[in-house]
Design a protein that fits this description.
Number of domains: 1
Strand content: under 5%
Helix content: 55-70%
Number of helices: 3
Number of strands: 0
Order of helices and strands: HHH
Length: 135
């Protein structure tokens, strides 16, 4: 049985997270995507939280991959790069997860710094309905 949290599997939550970041990318690319500096602060803070949580997810996924590999429960489809070497695939995946966890820690630090710098930011322009437009 697959574990669920808030009625969704890990796969479904990962898909939702990817969709959420895609939406943020679209919205912040529009001239009026962010109306106030405080919104930039909030979005950056939430993205920092996501980045801060990624190392734990990487470690837990790595732990499960090790369990499956140690039990001989990882296979790789024939005709693919790791087909004859599932243990090698797991080793490569674990290395990638270690690298991703370190990168996420750096990402968190940068996003947290950016968010913290804006914690008291506010909009000072005219209230003409163009707050997010132009420079």
């Amino acid at each position: 049985m697959t574990a669920v949290f808030d009625g969704r599997t890990a796969t479904e939550h990962a898909e939702a997270a990817a969709s959420a970041v895609r939406a943020i990318n679209h919205i912040t690319g529009w001239p009026a995507g962010l109306t106030y500096p405080s919104e930039a602060y909030t979005v950056l803070g939430q993205l920092a939280t996501v980045a801060a949580r990624l190392p734990q997810a990487c470690e837990q996924i790595a732990r499960q991959l090790r369990r499956w590999s140690d039990a001989g429960h990882v296979g790789i489809d024939a005709g693919t790069t790791w087909a004859c070497n599932p243990a090698g695939a797991v080793i490569d995946a674990l290395a990638g997860l270690d690298e991703a966890a370190v990168a996420a820690e750096h990402l968190y630090a940068g996003l947290d710094q950016a968010s913290a710098a804006l914690c008291y930011a506010h909009y000072t322009g005219a209230d003409d309905g163009q707050r997010g437009v132009g420079a």
